[in-house]
Each structure stands twice: as C-alpha cells, then as structure tokens.
C-alpha cells in the first residue's frame, strides 16, 4: 500500500503541504494513522508539480524512503506551486524497478498515483493488458501493477475521456478482472483532481474558491476534513467537489 495526496490551491512551497503539517505525507511514510495494509512506506516516493504557465508537470522521484533524501528537503523548501501530486510507496511485491515504480507516473499534462494492489497480480490483468496497443504496453514505466493500471487509465485519457470517467472505467475493468484489488487512484491535470475510493481510505479538505486537497488520510486535525465513502469517485476543483458512486463490475 501507499499514501498519496493531491492539492490545488494558492502558490506555496511544496513543504508547506508535504512536510510542515503535523501528520504530513512526509510523516505518513513511517507513521500513517489510517493505513489499512502495511505500516511503513519506504519503497520510494515522488512529487510532481506544475509551474506557472506550463501545462507539463515536473517530477522528483527516488527509490528509497523520503526521510533519507536530503535533496528533497531543499526542494520542498524552495519550489513553489499551486498544484501538486505526491506519494510515498509501500511496494505490493519485491521488484527491481526502483525509481521508475515510484509515483507519480506522468504523461503530457497528467500525474497519477495508485494506493492499493491488484489481486492475483500479474496473471489477473493479462487479458486487460492485451487490449492496449503494443507500443503502449511496451512503454510501461515499470513492471508493477500500478504501472499497468496507469497505462489503462492513460489509454482512456488519450482517447478523450475526462479525468473522472477514465478512472471510473479503469476501476470497473480492473475490479472485474481481479475482484480482490484495492484501487484508490489519484489523477490530476493541474486544474482538477479525480480520485477513487475502492478498498482503502480517502479524504478531502475543501475551501471553496481557494483550495482542494485530496489525500489517503488527513495531514492535520482540521475538522473540515471529510472521508469519502468506499466505492466512490471524487472530482475536485478549487471551486467545488462532487462525489459519485462507482459502478460495480459485472458479476
């Protein structure tokens, strides 16, 4: 399992969102409060962020634990943004992908993260993998379940699906192929955030017109945090948040 977070709001240093809060994503790498599977997220981390007037995000990812990376401390102190997605990773299975397996995954304007695990991986998703064009399958960022889930969602985005629709349909297909999967997905294009609650915790904090934060768990004790019901799609902008029940996969 993992912990992840996306934020849209005023331009602030990365560290104000990811490090400074009492129960920040940084702290969740070794002391999560709501994580249901696993206890330490030390198998990599990453952050992607958007600079003003540039639709393509920058990323910083590493294979080790965030607390051991002194470079991240400097980055978090000086880099400023109004939109970001970050994650700390607890690998589903051992692997040699290293940094390539750390979220956020990226393509064009999009950043993506998966908090969860695909059941009976990898055999369960072989039929879905074969629905991808060969060049997309060969271009997988890593050999992990999360990388393939991202490829499935990305295929829909490139076909013109909106953020929420791409995630909802991906969850339906993956859950249909591997019913025991946990599929908390997080996606942003810098202007909106889409997320799914499917098997683990998801929360949001919204200040209409100013800020929207979507996270695996609250990073502080602000009473305005709200938990998203399981099997729900969330789509958030700075202006509003909508929650929609996800369709169950065919029996």
From TrEMBL:
<dbReference type="InterPro" id="IPR032889">
    <property type="entry name" value="EgtC_Actinobacteria"/>
</dbReference>
<dbReference type="InterPro" id="IPR029055">
    <property type="entry name" value="Ntn_hydrolases_N"/>
</dbReference>
<comment type="pathway">
    <text>Amino-acid biosynthesis; ergothioneine biosynthesis.</text>
</comment>
<dbReference type="InterPro" id="IPR052373">
    <property type="entry name" value="Gamma-glu_amide_hydrolase"/>
</dbReference>
<keyword id="KW-0378">Hydrolase</keyword>
<dbReference type="GO" id="GO:0016811">
    <property type="term" value="F:hydrolase activity, acting on carbon-nitrogen (but not peptide) bonds, in linear amides"/>
</dbReference>
<protein>
    <recommendedName>
        <fullName>Gamma-glutamyl-hercynylcysteine sulfoxide hydrolase</fullName>
        <ecNumber>3.5.1.118</ecNumber>
    </recommendedName>
</protein>
<dbReference type="InterPro" id="IPR026869">
    <property type="entry name" value="EgtC-like"/>
</dbReference>
<dbReference type="Pfam" id="PF13230">
    <property type="entry name" value="GATase_4"/>
</dbReference>
<keyword id="KW-0315">Glutamine amidotransferase</keyword>
<dbReference type="GO" id="GO:0052699">
    <property type="term" value="P:ergothioneine biosynthetic process"/>
</dbReference>
<dbReference type="InterPro" id="IPR017808">
    <property type="entry name" value="EgtC"/>
</dbReference>
<comment type="function">
    <text>Catalyzes the hydrolysis of the gamma-glutamyl amide bond of hercynyl-gamma-L-glutamyl-L-cysteine sulfoxide to produce hercynylcysteine sulfoxide, a step in the biosynthesis pathway of ergothioneine.</text>
</comment>
């Amino acid at each position: 399992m993992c912990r992840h977070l996306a934020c849209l709001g005023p331009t602030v240093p990365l560290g104000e969102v990811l490090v400074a809060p009492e129960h920040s994503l940084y702290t969740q790498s070794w002391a999560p409060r709501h994580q249901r599977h696993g206890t330490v997220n030390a198998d990599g981390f990453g952050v992607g962020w958007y600079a003003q007037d540039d639709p393509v995000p920058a990323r910083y990812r590493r294979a080790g634990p965030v607390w051991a990376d002194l470079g991240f401390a400097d980055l978090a102190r000086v880099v400023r943004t109004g939109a970001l997605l970050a994650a700390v990773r607890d690998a589903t299975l051992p692997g040699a992908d290293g940094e390539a397996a750390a979220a956020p995954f990226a393509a064009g304007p999009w950043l993506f993260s998966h908090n969860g695990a695909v059941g009976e991986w990898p055999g369960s998703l072989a039929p879905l993998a074969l629905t991808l064009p060969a060049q997309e399958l060969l271009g997988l960022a890593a050999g992990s379940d999360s990388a393939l889930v991202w490829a499935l969602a990305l295929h829909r985005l490139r076909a013109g699906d909106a953020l929420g629709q791409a995630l909802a349909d991906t969850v339906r297909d993956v859950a249909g192929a591997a019913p025991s999967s946990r599929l908390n997905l997080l996606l942003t294009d810098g202007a909106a955030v889409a997320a799914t609650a499917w098997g683990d915790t998801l929360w949001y904090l919204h200040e209409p017109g100013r800020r929207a934060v979507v996270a695996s768990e609250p990073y502080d004790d602000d009473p305005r945090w709200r938990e998203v019901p399981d099997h729900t799609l969330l789509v958030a902008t700075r202006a509003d948040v909508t929650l929609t029940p996800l369709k169950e996969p065919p029996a």
